[in-house]
Description:
By secondary structure, this protein is of the alpha+beta class. The protein has helices at about 1-15, 20-50, 65-70, 75-90, 90-100, 105-110, 115-125, 130-145, 145-160, 195-210, 220-235, 255-260, 280-285, 315-325, 365-370; strands at about 175-180, 185-190, 250-255, 270, 275, 290, 295, 300-305, 310, 340-345, 360, 375, 385, 390-395. It folds into four domains: about 15-160, no CATH class; about 190-240, no CATH class; about 250-305, no CATH class; about 310-395, no CATH class. α3 packs across α4 (about 75-90) and α10 crosses α11 (about 220-235). The radius of gyration is 28 Å and the shape is elongated.
Amino acid sequence: MGELQSALDALAAEDVQGRTPRQNLDEIAVLLEARNRIDAQLTRRVRAAELQQAPEEDGQKSMRSWLRGHGRITSAAAGQLVRNGRALGCLPAVEAAFAMGAVTADQVAVIAPVAKADRQAAALEQGIDLAAVDRTFAAVAAEHRVEELSRLVHHYLALLDPDGPEPDPTDERSLTLSTLSDGTVVLRGQLDAVGGEKLLTALEAIVQADRPKGDRRTRAQQNADALVQLADNQLASGGLPILRTVKPNVVVTIRDGDLADRGAGRAAATTGFGGLVSAETARMLACDGSITPVRIDEHGMPLNVGRTKRVVPPHLRKAVELRDQTCIFAGCGAPKYWCDVHHLIHWIFGGETSLENSALLCERHHTKVHHGFRVERDPGGRWRTFRPDGSEIVIGAPLLI
C-alpha cells in the first residue's frame, strides 16, 4: 500500500499540461486499466470484509452502511460494490479479467445478476456449463462496450426461463432524488425497457420541438431541459393527483422586502423541498404564478394567511397567447403551452399585469431574461431581444407574405 501511495504522489506531481495530446491519451488508457485493477482489489477486500462481518468492528451493521459512512459514497454505489463482491465469488474468470484491468467495475455490475443463486440453479437444471458462461462473459467484457455486454447478459437470462411468467416491469424501476445543500437535485435510477422507451419517446418529442437557432446545449442539457419541461407541462395541466386537498404546485417562500430588493442575495428564497434560490429566480416564478401573503411574528410563526391571488389571470394569458403564439425570444419559437407570461416590468416594481406589459417566454429564456438578457416590443409590434451587453440578437429579416 505504501508503494501505491508513493506512485500516486509521483503521478500527482507530473505536469500533464506539458504532455502532447498523444501522450495524454496513451496515459489515460494506462490509468483506466490501473483504475480497473484498483477497483478489483477494492471489491475483493469488500467481499472479504463482509464475510468476516468486519463492519461490526466499527459498530456498523453491514458493509454497505460502513461504505456509506467511512467511504463517503452514495448508498447506490455502496450497494453495487457489495453486490459485485458477492458475484465475483462465483465468477472466477470475470474476477481474473477484472484483476488484470481488462474489465471495468461497471461491466462487473452488468454481469453480476448471472451469479444469483436462482439463476445458477436454473442453469444447472438445464445442463449449462457455468464455467463456460463465466469465461464467455469475461471475454466479451474485455473486448466490447457495456451496452453490447448488457444485451448479451439480458439474452442469456431470458433463455434461462423462456416459458416463465413475464417479469413485473416495476421490479426493474428505481429512482433516487438527492437534494444538495444549494437545492440542486441529483438523479440516479434505472427503468425497464418499456418504461425507458416511454420516457425516451416523451423527451425526444420535446427535444426535437425545441431546437432554437444557435442552440449550443449538449445532448445531456437538452434531455435535462426536456425533463423539466415535461414536469412543467404536467403541473400546468392541473391533471396531477390532488395531495391533501391541494393541487401540486411549486412553492417558493421569500420575505416581502427581499422580493422587492434588486440587491437581495442568491439564497434569499426557499423552495418547498428546501432548496435555496435567488430573489431574481423567485421573481421569475412569480411572473406567472400565484401569491399567498403570510404574516409572521418575530419568532417566525404565522399570524394569518391572506387570500391567494393569481398574478396572471386566465383571460390575460389567453390574450397573450393569441398575440405572441410562441416564445418571443429571438430564434426560439417554443410552443405557447410551454411558456410563462413574463412581466416586462415586474409587478413588484410597479409594472402592470396587462397585455402591453406581458410576453410569452419558455422556461429557459424566461430565466435568461431575469438574469441579464432583455426583450422589448417596438412600436411596429415586433419583438426584439438584447444581450446583457446591450447588443441586439438579430436572426434575419422577417418574411413578408
